[in-house]
Design goal:
single chain; alpha/beta; Rossmann fold; seven-stranded parallel sheet; globular
Amino acid sequence: MIYLNYDKSKQYLKNFRDINLDFVYLITKKQMVTYLITGANRGIGLEFCRQLKQRGNHVIAVCREVSQELLELDVSIETGIDLTSDTDIKGLLKKLNGQKIDVLINNAAILERVTLDDLDINSIRQQFEVNAIAPLRLTKTLLRNLTTGSKIILMTSRMGSIEDIAIDRLVRTHKLYFKATGNRQQATEKCPNSLGDCYNTSGGSYGYRMSKVALCMAGKSLSVDLKPKNIAVAILHPGLVKTRMTNFTPNGITPEKSVQGLIARIDQLNLENTGTFWHSNGEILPW
C-alpha cells in the first residue's frame, strides 16, 4: 500500500502501469488531516493556510473576499462567506457536503478601537457579532462535520483577559510616538520595550475587549460541553503580530513565527488540557 500527498501522487506514480489514481486519491485523502480556517485571505489566517498546506494537510480556506496570496497556495477556497449571516453559514455547510473536519480554526475577527469619549455602540455590537457570536454559530453548525478526536480552535486575544491588558497600550503608545515624530525608528526607541513596562495600565477598546472576553467564555463552555464527544477546544492568543490589524507594529512578531507557535499549541491540544487559554509561545494566560 502506498500513501502519498495527492499533490505528489500523480507525478510519483505516472510511470507505473495498472494503478488506479482515483483509488490512490481516495486513500491519500483519507489519511490527510483536514483543517478549516476562517479569515484565511490575509494575516494570521493566510499564514495558517500556508504552513498547514506545507505540512501536507488538506486546507479549506474560508473568507469573504479571496486574495491573490491565498489563490497561490493551491488550497480549497470557499469565498463570499459572511460569518455573521445564517444564510452564508448554511451555504458553507451545504458546500462542504459532509466533509469531515479534523481541526476547525475560528480565526476571522475585526478590531475597531472604541473609547469612552467616543462610545460607538454600533461598532461594539458589530464586534460582538463577528468576534464572539459568529465563531459560536459556525462551530455549532459544523459540529456534524466534526468527529471524535476533532479539535476546535478559537483565536482570541490577551486583550480579552480581564487581568492582562498590556498589548493595547504598547500598540497605541507606538502610534502616538510615530504621529509625533514622523520617524518610525524614533517611535520604536521611545516606546516601552517590553509588555512588562506597560502591564495592566490601559483601558479603552471596549468593543474588541468585550467581544474577546465573550469568546473566551464561549470557548471554556464549549470545552466542557464537547469533552464527552471527545472534541478538544483551545483558546489561543497569537501574540502581538505584525499584521494589518495592528498597523504592522514593529514591536510585533511575524505571522510566520506566531503561526509556528499556534500550530505547536494545536498539536499539543488534547482532552486533558482542553479549555486552556494559551499564548502562542506556550504561556498559559490569565482569564
